[in-house]
Specification:
21% strand; globular; 11 helices; seven-stranded mixed beta sheet
Length: 447
């Protein structure tokens, strides 16, 4: 019987354009790219040159700080370009896929006979260890520091999020293998939602989180089950597809970075799912999927934490949905903010839409207001189901008061934990950016 944890804070935002549980078949154009920025805290060192031939599973770059952490190519083919930006920063490594795919064979493993070190070594060798994150700092994990526990969240509850239960259908064996492998390293917690099929998995402690978004955030689950104190480390997998990557590697001996992606949003003609590889060019998914004459925002991820991208962008390493919503910069509203607004969502009932009951909204990307002084109104606390004082923590980060940040629990938060607070914030502050900068400074100080 799973442990049930009831959460009373949070906010569910109901948007139009949820993906139907049906698969669309895609024909890839063969363009793939692995983007180092998808792996937080990693400074990449490219280990291939333009013109090199690679197999699926060969390393494209490594983490300069921990060179044993490699990042595998999702496909076999020719390295066509190493794209660099300002100050020669590596933006991505592009690979043109072969018609006939070849994989590096890392050998099938019997996970029951492995210990924690063997599991970590297998993940490092195959170049998928970097998909595991850690708290504190919410960065890609350091393989030399073993965690006190590992957290996997199989609950996706952000607006329009893809349903992981649909993704794991037919791959239950790989998911179980991945969980068993993680449990060899440290005690592993699996978080899921109410009425979930994940309660039956073995070798892990299953916890049901009953509450609104952000109950699926791995940071929220850590906060309720095994909080992180200074000097402690937990590994986190907020993207449960990573467990499938691990299971496939151990069961087949091959790196398979395939994931099921929800194409969603109010501008998408037929929201549905598609199977894609990490780094696949988005044009294969987005062609003819929305009205190209409209001004839209394409988001690599969900509306709260994703990054703006274009048709020429590539599927992120942790992306489970591609969202298309109106940009909103062509909205021409007579009387502006004074309108009663029956079709727009408001948290504090400043629009009249709350009179119409629960409905799905077609929201655009406008901020609707400028940055202003921070008001201590308790707004963040209403949507932050963690035992921390969100507003005081943000203030201490802005002030650069490291001692205060540590007292207020910065070691157990990640930027995504403040995504909803950013949405409801009447001061229009970029809270996720502020938290990320605070964590980066703290990491340097403690290095």
């Amino acid at each position: 019987m799973a442990n049930v944890i009831k959460l009373h804070k949070g906010l569910d935002i109901h948007l139009q354009g949820k993906a139907e549980e049906k698969l669309i078949q895609l024909k890839s154009n063969g363009q793939y790219a692995l983007v180092p920025d998808d792996f937080e805290g990693v400074t990449p060192k490219v280990v291939v040159k333009e013109g090199d031939m690679v197999k699926a599973g060969d390393a494209l770059f490594v983490n300069k700080q921990y060179p044993e952490v490699k990042f595998a190519s999702p496909v076999s083919g020719k390295v066509v370009e190493v794209v660099r930006g300002e100050r020669r920063k590596v933006l991505c490594v592009k690979v043109l896929a072969d018609a006939e795919q070849q994989h590096v064979d890392y050998g099938v493993k019997d996970v029951a006979k492995m210990d924690g070190k063997q599991v970590v070594d297998a993940l490092l060798e195959a170049g998928i260890f970097g998909y595991i994150n850690q708290l504190p700092y919410a960065v890609s994990a350091n393989p030399s520091v073993m965690p006190k526990s590992i957290f996997v969240s199989a609950l996706r509850d952000k607006p329009l999020a893809g349903n992981f239960e649909f993704e794991v259908k037919g791959e239950e064996k790989n998911f179980q293998t991945g969980l068993t492998a993680l449990s060899k390293i440290a005690k592993t917690y699996l978080g899921c939602g109410v009425h979930s099929s994940f309660e039956n998995y073995q070798d892990v402690e299953v916890n049901v989180f009953d509450g609104k978004c952000p109950a699926g955030n791995v940071g929220v689950q850590v906060n309720h089950l095994d909080p992180v104190n200074k000097g402690e480390v937990v590994w986190t997998i907020g993207d449960p597809t990573v467990v499938l990557f691990i299971g496939r590697l151990l069961n087949t001996g091959k790196v398979d970075l395939r994931r099921r992606v929800a194409l969603c949003g109010s501008e998408v003609t037929s929201p549905a799912y598609a199977d894609m590889l990490v780094g696949e060019e988005l044009s294969t998914l987005l062609s003819n999927s929305y009205d190209a004459t409209k001004n839209v925002r394409i988001i690599n991820g969900n509306v709260l934490t994703g990054r703006p991208t274009t048709k020429d962008g590539f599927l992120g390493a942790h992306t489970s949905e591609i969202t298309v919503i109106p940009e909103g910069n062509d909205a021409d509203e007579m009387l502006g903010w004074i309108l009663p607004r029956f079709k727009q969502f408001s948290v504090n009932r400043s629009y009249f839409s709350w009179l119409l009951g629960k409905k799905d909204y077609a929201l655009d990307a406008r901020v609707k207001g400028g940055e202003r002084h921070m008001i201590m109104s308790g707004e963040y606390d209403k949507v932050l189901p963690m035992d921390i004082y969100g507003e005081y923590l943000i203030k201490s980060i802005i002030a650069g008061d490291i001692d205060r940040q540590e007292q207020l629990g910065i070691y157990e938060v990640s930027p995504e934990d403040f995504a909803l607070a950013e949405f409801v914030d009447s001061s229009k502050l970029e809270l996720q950016r502020i938290v990320r900068e605070g964590l980066n400074i703290l990491r340097k100080e403690n290095a």
